[in-house]
Amino acid sequence: MLHLVKPLRSHLRHLRLAHFKAPKPPESPPKPPNPPQKPETFTLHDHTWQDPYSWMSKLNDKVAMRHMDMYMEQEDKYTEAVMYGTDRLQSKLQSEMASRLSFDLSTPPLKFGPWLYYRRVEEGKQFPVLCRRLASLHDEFISHKSPSAGFDFTSGKRIEQKLIDYNQEAQRFGGYAYEELSEVSPDHRFIAYTMYDKDKDLFRLSVRNLNSGALCSKPQAERVSNLAWAKDGQALLYVVTDQNKRPYRMYCSLIGSTDEDVLVFEESDNNVFVNIRHTKDFRFVTVNTFSTASSKVFLINAADPLSGLNLVWQCEGIAHCVLEHHQGYLFLFTDAAKGGQSVDSHYLLCSPVDSSSSPRIWEDVFVSDPDWVVEDVDFSHTHLVLNIREGRNFRLCSVALPLPAGKGPVHLKELHPQFLPLPKYVSQISPGPNYDYHSSKMRFTISSPVMPDAVVDYDLSNGNWKIIQQQNILHERTKVLYGTASSASISEKTLNTHNLNSANEVSPDDQQLWNDLSEFYACEQHNVSSYDGVLVPLTVVYSRKNKKEDQNPGLLHVHGAYGELLDKRWCSELKSLLDRGWMVAYADVRGGGGGGKKWHHDGRCTKKINSIKDFIACANFLVDKEIVHEKKLAASGYSAGGLVVASAINQCPHLFTAAVLKVPFLDATSTLLYPIIPLTAVDYEEFGYPGDINDFHAIRDYSPYDNIQKDVLYPAVLISSSFNTRFGVWEAAKWVARVRELTVYDPKRPILLNLTTDIVEENRYLQCKESALETAFLIKAMES
């Protein structure tokens, strides 16, 4: 969602990041800025309304943008004045958070073919370096403290090969190095990657020769959204977007050839989007086209990428479709409707590659089992790994390949799946790149609210598992298992699945191997009854040492959109709140993930109100059960989660004392009706089509900007926004101005707008500074 909007004025991109160093204290409470009102009237369907601050979003109006410049400077000064006196607290918080940053020597080396690929940061450099070394080299030639210093005394050569220095890339792209895509060719001779061009607001494709380090003369396309290697690395397929950022054309470039790139496919329908990927064995390239009307999957023979596209699947409506190939069979993982009836979860289909039937016949691989819902799959040459959800709990298992043929759908339990060990309270399982199709190992990142993310390699051939990287919070250091430097740690972390209990968790004796923090931080899970009786999962985390009955302040997080999981991973920044006696809670409201497609659909579009009501129910639960003090509850939402929080504040302003909104979606009516940034069909499916009268009225009912209560005291709110965000800074600025205009003014309940710049995303210390500001704001709000 980032890097999609150019700045209004270039100097605003470099607003001062060292917050709140006011030279002298204010003698009286500072007065908030009062931007000019320029009412504009809008009419749609049977409704007419006025927007006094619509001028803030007129990016092409030079006069309006000059006013916007002045207004943003006023907001910056006002935030500085309000937060005066917290500079020492912010400095302390920033030091705490910075001390917990993991200083990784490198990312965990990833095996792909004969090579180990990894990124590392050189001393004194801002951006990392992509490197590789041969996996066959002896471990004793590897230096752990300085990987680049590794030396093979037999051959007399350094073992490390530098592939891309992103500090040099930053020089090519105006001091900024943001990479979106990167793919190493199957023959390991080239790497194709896209870098963000800040001046042109697009991603540019480059191909680099890994043997010489030189950039290839072609392709060097712009506006690239997808890429896939073909012809064993001799050809590259890539997709470009139109001016509205819709992926629509696919080209083929022959590496080393002087011929022009060939247009392989073009989608002329402005409502249809194109996406490509290669199968893990590099035998095929799949081409997905999708719109609200239909979804299709085409197959390209990677050995002959110009031989044409073969349609292998199509269905009505938008469907998630991932195609893989294994030993002569195509496997399709999809959530498409069956027999015209919507399904609640994904399922796996298979069909022979050489099938001659028209249309192609697909068969279910597994018998549907409501107790074991398949959330994701991954293939290797010998195993199929499945991420399974059992109720609200995640499990990870593998079955041997090939699967039984000619028997029709089978029960997964009949295949005797080998369950892989997991810690307690798993909130998310994220697959690693797992490029090496022929490896017996698969990598996953295991997340928990009370455990730092663990990068784990599972050996599917024998059930052994190994934590490759995980920060040890208790000792404020990071364990990076690189080479042989931590061989003792490696042996400690290597366990067999025989150590599992019935819930596929490791035994209590082995739980400590995960660096689990549950001895110090408790994790409680509740089911909260919403307004209509639906049970909403609520997770509460707190410090066992610092909890006080009915006295604790609390922070409630929410997302609730796009069917995405709420991020409940352990966050080291939140440790500063937990250690100060705060309760940190997570509301898995409808509209989000983890409960199937129905859970998602029951919180989107005309049913968006369910997300908001669920969130309010969870907030009331925390207060009613005295988990959080009734006057010390704060809320937090990012992007679409900001919409949920702001809408809940509109409905129950008395319920919250403070809120932090990060790049929030606040002006739903204007954004959906007159998008400044092109929106996709998925966005409209999520929030509604204003052209549809029922959707329009639903949007008007939930839109935070259009439902601010008059003459009511609102909580203190800190909004962080920037100019490089999908929901532009004008949305935050309009909402802030409107709230101040309509609600009761109280200097103890300020409405603040904090402007950030795009470089914060790539700088962990600036992230700490922003987090310290947000945390200080919450503490100050509770104390006042």
UniProtKB/TrEMBL annotation:
The keyword Cell membrane does not apply. Residues 36-471 form the Peptidase S9A N-terminal domain. It is an enzyme of class 3 (hydrolase). Residues 23-38 have a biased composition (Pro residues). Gene3D superfamilies: alpha/beta hydrolase (3.40.50.1820), Prolyl oligopeptidase, N-terminal domain (2.130.10.120). Keywords: Hydrolase, Protease, Serine protease. The keyword Protease applies. GO terms for molecular function: serine-type endopeptidase activity. Residues 573-741 form the Peptidase S9 prolyl oligopeptidase catalytic domain. Its EC number is 3.4.21.-. GO terms for biological process: proteolysis. Residues 20-43 are annotated as: Disordered. Serine peptidase whose precise substrate specificity remains unclear. Does not cleave peptides after a arginine or lysine residue. Regulates trans-Golgi network morphology and sorting by regulating the membrane binding of the AP-1 complex. May play a role in the regulation of synaptic vesicle exocytosis. Belongs to the peptidase S9A family. This is Prolyl endopeptidase. The lineage of its organism: Eukaryota, Viridiplantae, Streptophyta, Embryophyta, Tracheophyta.
